[in-house]
């Protein structure tokens, strides 16, 4: 086989693999976030209201900071 052709095929396969990997990862992450949406302030306020607490801005910020710190630890 011609050396130039072999190099071309290797580069082509690497590019196709990178493109396929990118789109596969993007599709996986879209499906993941559809099933498990990230926690928002509105969700925290709703949860606190359902538990019988008054959701003040200070409490909501504390809960959001706790969630961020837990995510950073993991």
Explain the layout of strands and helices.
Layout (H helix, E strand, L loop, with lengths): L2 H33 L5 H10 L6 H17 L1
Biggest sheet details:
none
- Strand proportion, as a percent range, falls in under 5%
Tally of helical segments:
3
Helix content: over 70%
- Strand tally: 0
Structural class: mainly alpha
Give the integer mean of the pLDDT values: 92
CA-based gyration radius: 23 Å
What does this 3D model show about the protein?
The model has no long low-confidence stretch (mean pLDDT 92). This protein has three helices and no strands. Helix content is 81%, strand content 0%. The chain has 74 residues and is mainly α.
Key features of this structure:
mainly alpha; 3 helices; 0% strand
The gist of it:
With about 70 residues, the protein is mainly α.
């Amino acid at each position: 086989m011609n050396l130039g052709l072999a190099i071309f095929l290797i580069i082509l396969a690497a590019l196709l693999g990178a493109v396929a990997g990118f789109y596969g990862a993007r599709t996986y992450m879209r499906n993941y976030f559809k099933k498990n949406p990230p926690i928002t302030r509105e969700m925290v306020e709703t949860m606190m209201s359902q538990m019988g607490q008054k959701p003040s801005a200070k409490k909501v910020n504390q809960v959001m900071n706790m969630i961020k710190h837990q995510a950073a630890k993991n």
